[in-house]
Amino acid sequence: MAWVRPAWLRVRRPSISRNARLFLWTVFLSNVGISGIFLLLYNLYLVALGYQEDFIGLLSLVQMGAIAAGAIPAGALSERVGPRPVLILGTVVMAAGALGMALASGPATLAGLNFVTGLGFAMRIVPYTPYLVDNTGPAERTLVFSANSAAMSVASTVGSLVGGQLPAVFAALLRLDTSESIPSFRLSLVVGALLGLVAVLPMSMATDRTDRGAAPSSLPLGPESEVPPAQVRRRVAVFVATTVLFALSGACIAPFVNVYFSRELGLSASSISLILASSAILAAVASVAASALAGRVGKVPAMVTIRAAGVPLLLLLSLNPGVVLATAAILTRNVTEMAGWPLDGAFLAEVIPLRRQARAVAYRSVAWNATWAVTAFAAGQAIVRFGYGPMFALAGGALLMATAVYWVAFSRLEPRQQLT
Q1: Among residues of the chain, what percentage have pLDDT more than 90?
Q2: With contact defined as beta carbons under 8 Å apart, do 212 and 354 qualify?
């Protein structure tokens, strides 16, 4: 008797276009080098140079301010020349700025290079949603956004694991007494920056829309494809408002996590790398699961549920719970944040027309980075004076408010989906 393939095996899975695959490779390489190796070690490098959390917060203010300042020009440039050239330029500028940061030690030079790196980030952040929308069809869009988040998570895992070991490797090669020295950190950061520069190669092999002919349909079907301009403006305003709250929550914690683990909990760079690597790989799995959940209950309910799950643990962190619970709380916070963003991006692509998406992302980028810059600077000052507890409590409250506003504003835009 001939074997009959089960029905679930006969379902045609959405494929990912060549341009989208090349973009994912750029994301992967860049995140191994910059988000993995570089960001893991950079604050520890600053601590080795003798700086404290207040100066780390100041540098975050400069870099995020640069991203905010560059976001709207990056959006206008993306609309004028297309998103791919802007993505390529942003990758080069970001990696070059990071390389300079690895070699510098003076406060003024570090601040200037953080500004340059921030401009590169702006040119990477703003065009990515229009680029993915322009290079995907509706059937594959949520999959690609989730794959992008998973690529970032896996890359951060690889980068964190490698980055955690690099200082010890260079310390051994240089015959230094400790791995947490300026030369070992500096050489490790150079490796991360150079790998971030290599990330430009896949995008340079992609093609622009005019090279490919007609682009896939990127506007949602039905009445949402003809949204009145006033309605679009209201939706963008809500996206911006919730972005401010999400940024407020993240900036109280993220710039100082590795320093918190090192100074407050006494963990080594290697241990910190394992924790951050674990959170990144868990986030990759959670992103795939979140995509499946969104297909059953809708993107907005899935995103709100996932992000709100981090609130109780942020409040727990404010009570200084110790190494085990603090590690679990940070892991959960990182995983829920990473798993929520691809749903948010895919939902924005459905309810904001393509011609307005670059500007919408630019406005959100301004809101995110301006809020992050001010909050990180203020949080650094507050941590030096009052400790980490109040910042964790503020982060939990802001995250709760953000998810509530998002639900109230957007829950009615998606049709109710029944569980099967």
Answers
A1: 18
A2: no
Name the pLDDT band for 414 (thresholds 50, 70, 90). Answer: low
Query: Please, what is the end-to-end C-alpha distance for the chain in angstroms?
Result: 32
Nearest to 122 by CA among 366, 325, 360, 296: 366
For residue 394, give the nearest of 315, 309, 278 by alpha carbon.
Answer: 315
Is residue 405 exposed (0-12), middle (13-18) or buried (19+ Cβ within 10 Å)? Answer: middle
Distance CA 31, CA 59 (A): 20
Distance CA 138, CA 63 (A): 35
Helix, strand or coil for residue 95?
helix
Per-residue tokens: 386: 């009052």
Q: Are 150 and 287 in contact (CB under 8 A)?
A: yes
What is the separation of C-alpha 15 from the centre of its chain, rounded to a whole number of angstroms? 24
For the question of whether the overall pTM of this predicted structure is more than 0.70, the answer is no
* CB burial of residue 5 (10 Å; 0-12, 13-18, 19+): exposed
Eight-state DSSP code of residue 32: I
Distance of CA 277 to the CA centre of its chain: 15
DSSP state string for 203-216: HHTS--HHHHSSPP
Helix locations, 175-322, DSSP H? 182-198, 200-204, 209-212, 229-251, 257-259, 269-297, 299-308, 311-317
Could you say which DSSP state residue 414 is in?
S
CA distance 178 to 181: 6
Tell me the per-residue pLDDT of 260-295, one tens digit each, with 9 for 90 and over. Answer: 888 778 787 778 877 777 777 787 788 778 877 887
Token pair recorded at residue 228: 């009145």
Q: Which residue has the tokens 């590795």?
A: 258
- Torsion region of 320: left, alpha or beta (phi above 0 gives left; psi -120 to 50 gives alpha): left
pLDDT in tens, 139-175: 677 778 777 777 877 887 788 788 888 888 888 888 8
Residue 300 tokens, joined: 């907005």
